[in-house]
Design goal:
Length: 98
């Protein structure tokens, strides 16, 4: 049974049955999303403290972080404006099917 035929079959049902099916489908999808969300949190929380500590250690002082960000911004602008971009064209051959 395809989805289109199932939807057509549901349209013949009374309205309260259609609402129950819609609610059940939405609830089922929500539960599946919730389970995946909880599963992803358990993997993250194991090393979260160490990850935060490493990020803080790499960031340095706020002044160093700001200087690096500004320097990176100006480097990106310079590359965008003054670095030539190499454009490569590839020949595509289209042959009729047999």
């Amino acid at each position: 049974m395809t989805i289109q035929s199932y939807i057509e079959h549901l349209r013949t049902k009374p309205e309260h049955i259609r609402k129950q099916i819609a609610f059940g489908s939405a609830l089922g999808l929500t539960v599946i999303i919730f389970v995946f969300w909880v599963a992803s949190l358990t993997g993250v929380s194991n090393n979260a403290g160490q990850v935060v500590a490493n990020a803080v250690a790499k960031a340095g002082t706020p002044a160093q972080s700001l200087t690096a960000s500004v320097g990176g911004f100006f480097g990106d602008i310079k590359d965008l404006l003054f670095t030539p971009r190499k454009v490569t064209y590839v020949d595509v051959q289209v042959t009729p099917s047999k």
